[in-house]
Design goal:
Elements: H1 14-26, H2 32-40, E1 61-64, E2 67-69, H3 72-82, E3 90-94, H4 100-106, E4 111-116, H5 119-131, E5 137-141, E6 154-159, H6 168-172, E7 174-184, E8 190-198, E9 201-210
Parallel strand pairs: 3-4, 3-6, 4-5, 6-7
Antiparallel strand pairs: 1-2, 7-8, 8-9
Helix pairs in contact: 1-2
Length: 220
């Protein structure tokens, strides 16, 4: 991979990023921290070159292997929900994909543990992390539905693929006071949930209706 053009030109320029940020603000994203993360993270590096002109459109884009890079609004919404009461020290991400959401989290200074079941995707994501000098990311090729038990408990867990129900393994790896942000449900009826672990159990809140690829077991 060539040395990245972090600034971009034309449709990937700073002006295009600024327009996206204003659109997200109008859609209800209130965290200035999150808006600046979106503004400063070069999304065009995480999509195929042929799609770079659409990188700062507020839309999901294909990244191969029947996977997508999430819509910027959803990345911002999930990140905002994760850090609403403070920036966590450690976060587990389920579904690295192209690595864009991972990079947004890492730029908060968080120690990010990220798991991807598709080996080709995790390899490409690692190249991008190296190019962006994001050395606070630990990545793994594995089954995300099992979490990462030997690094638990986590202050936050964020999933970018939708299980039919909340995996008990992920809830159990959340630390007291931690937040689990994930889509749940079958295609066409997925809810974005925020689950908080308290000393007495778990509190759950629905944040939005969303559309994600399904969370699958195993690896490929």
């Amino acid at each position: 991979m060539q040395k990245p053009d972090l600034r971009g030109i034309g449709m990937t320029s700073q002006r295009a990023r600024d327009r996206l940020v204003e659109q997200l603000r109008e859609m209800g994203i209130r965290s200035e921290i999150v808006l600046e993360l979106i503004r400063g993270t070069p999304r065009h590096l995480f999509v195929d070159e042929a799609l770079a002109s659409r990188a700062y459109d507020n839309t999901a884009l294909p990244i191969g292997h029947n996977q997508t890079i999430s819509q910027p609004y959803i990345v911002a919404r999930m990140t905002e929900a994760l850090i609403e009461t403070g920036i966590p020290g450690t976060v587990l991400e389920i579904g690295t994909g192209c690595g864009y959401q991972t990079a947004v989290l890492a730029r908060l200074g968080i120690k990010v543990y990220t798991i991807e079941r598709i080996e080709a995707l995790i390899q490409r994501a690692r190249e991008r992390f190296r190019l962006l000098q994001l050395d606070n990311i630990v990545s793994r090729h594995g089954d995300g539905s099992l979490g990462w038990a030997d690094q638990a408990p986590f202050d936050g867990i964020l999933a970018t693929a939708a299980p039919v129900g909340v995996p008990g393994m992920l809830r159990s790896q959340l630390g007291i006071g931690g937040r689990l942000i994930l889509p749940v449900g079958r295609s066409g009826e997925q809810a974005l949930l925020r689950i908080m672990r308290t000393p007495d159990g778990y509190e759950q809140q629905q944040l939005d209706w969303v559309s994600f690829v399904p969370m699958l077991e195993g690896t490929s």
